[in-house]
Amino acid sequence: MPVSATALDVRVQVPEGAEVGRIAYEFGDVAISVVADGKSIALVQFKGVRGLRVLDEGDLLEFWPACSRPNGWLFGITKGGWLDSESSRPGFIREKYSAVQEYLVTGDNERVSILSDEMPTVGTNAL
């Protein structure tokens, strides 16, 4: 199933070559720093996180071209992503978490998939 995604309008510009920097997880909240030229340019924060994974972009080719760099850097995944894949497993209890949505934070090399009850907030403060 092809991935369907929407670039989130976050009003924070992230240049080509940006990378996922620091990822902090604490008590169900995740903060992800996006860096370029050694400087943090964006801080993406999630509350109510139900899952997170970090993979090299080469291991997420099903997300191309929907989540490629010309289209944005932060995406809401609506179909065909990690959440749909997990939902096919008998042990995954998605129906218990009906509000869960999938998001993808992209860097040139690493990608972070987040399953969260809430939309992320984006700012320019560093971790």
Describe what this molecule looks like in 3D:
Helix content is 5%, strand content 46%. The model has no long low-confidence stretch (mean pLDDT 90). The protein has 127 residues and is mainly beta. Strand 7 and strand 8 (110-116) form a beta hairpin. The chain is built from 1 helix and 9 strands. It is globular. The strands form 2 sheets. Strands 1-6-7-8-5 form a 5-stranded antiparallel beta sheet. A 4-stranded antiparallel beta sheet has the order 2-3-4-9, with no helix packed on it.
Search tags:
127 residues, 4-stranded antiparallel beta sheet, globular
SS strand fraction: over 45%
Number of helices: 1
Over all CA atoms, what is the radius of gyration?
14 Å
Q: What value does the average pLDDT take?
A: 90
Overall 3D geometry? globular
Low-confidence stretches: none
Order of helices and strands: EEEEEEHEEE
| Helical content (DSSP H or I, runs of 4+) | under 10%
The largest sheet is: 5 strands, antiparallel
Question: Biggest sheet, strands in spatial order?
Answer: 1-6-7-8-5
Query: Separation of termini?
Result: 36 Å
Per DSSP E runs of 2 or more residues, the count of β-strands stands at: 9
**Which structural class fits the helix and strand makeup?**
mainly beta
